[in-house]
C-alpha cells in the first residue's frame, strides 16, 4: 500500500498583474486539517500563514513587481507539519 502524501502536490499559481499578487491552489492532502505557506526571506523560511483550511491561498496585494520569492506550502496531518517535504518541493514565483 502506498504511503499517503503529507505535503501538497499539483501546486498551481495564478498571477494578478492588476493587484501584483499571486494565488496558489493545490490538491487536497488526505487527513490534513491545516495548510501553511512559508516564504524564504533574508536567508530563512518565514511562515506567512498557517491556518488555511482550504486548498487556496492568495498573497497580500501590491507586492513588488519583478521580485522573485521562494515559496513552500506545507500540510498538517495528525497534528504534525511536514516542513521537510514542503521545502524540498518548494518553488519560485515572480510578482507581475
TrEMBL record:
It comes from the Bacteria. This is Fibronectin type III domain-containing protein. It comes from Ruminococcus albus. InterPro entries: FN3_sf, Ig-like_fold.
